Amino acid sequence: MTLVLHGYWRSSAAYRVRIGLNLKGLAFRQATLDLRSGDQRAAAYRELAPIGLVPTLEADGLRVTQSLAILEWLEERHPGTPLLPEQAEARAIVRAMALIVACDIHPINNLRVLSALRSDFAASEAMVQKWIARWIEEGFTALETMVAEHGGTFCFGDRPTIADCCLIPQVYNARRFGIDLNVFPRLVATEVQCLGLDAFHRARPELQPDADGASA
What CATH topology corresponds to 88-200? Predict the structure, then answer.
């Protein structure tokens, strides 16, 4: 099976999928869309992803969009190295953790929303920063509580799940935007454990071939 991941090095949604592919031990090729230049809105890409967002995963003619849909498809299609626990109750908790990031934090802090705040509502950079911090801190407060209750080495128990695939890119974003993470010790400890694994390390944005400053 040939896998092509359409994404961008600093897209946290694409970062989630890179982690999942690496955890599954799946080889894939990356196709870059520069979000700053608006490549994701080009007609050719919209034929793959009508919403005009990354990531999209192509797999021998199949096109899957939305990072969590991709991770769920990978879980079903390649069940080795599972990203979800066996019990239904545990899976529900892991999915809830992942969705706090994917639904409650990331969408309202992504590039198109921040650009709209600046262009349509004349928000200053200080206001944009306050907006970003508000939603990250609110979501991380909830996740800190859930990881304290259900976590072990990772977000849930002692093996990586889709919750970790979502958390680590969001922690990357939090650091990028200067969020104080000292009040989230369980999340920081989870980050340390995850980045110690090769699958997470190789997915890091700065190590991607399209990253700013990366060697050709």
Answer: Glutathione S-transferase Yfyf (Class Pi); Chain A, domain 2 (1.20.1050)
Q: Which residues of 74-103 are buried (b: 16+ CB within 10 A; e: fewer)?
A: bbeebeebbbbbeeeeebebbbbbbebbbe
Give residue-wise pLDDT tens across range 161-185: 999 999 999 999 999 999 999 999 9
Tokens representing residue 106 in the block:
């990331």
Q: Specify the pLDDT at position 187.
A: 98
Taking the C-alpha atoms of residue 73 and residue 195, their distance in angstroms, rounded to an integer, is: 24
Question: Would the pLDDT of 213 be above 60?
Answer: yes
Q: What is the mean pLDDT of residues 86-111?
A: 97
Chain-centroid distance, C-alpha 137: 17
CB 87, CB 73: distance < 8 Å: no
CA distance 33 to 42: 10
Q: What is the residue-averaged pLDDT of the chain?
A: 96
CA distance 3 to 59: 5
Contact 179, 137 (CB under 8 A): yes
The CATH number assigned to the domain with range 3-81 reads 3.40.30.10
Distances from the Cα of 212 to the Cαs of 33, 77, 106, in angstroms?
A: 13, 33, 22
What's this model's pTM, rounded to 2 decimal places? 0.96
| CA 166/CA 15 separation, integer angstroms | 8
Structure confidence at residue 216 (pLDDT): 41
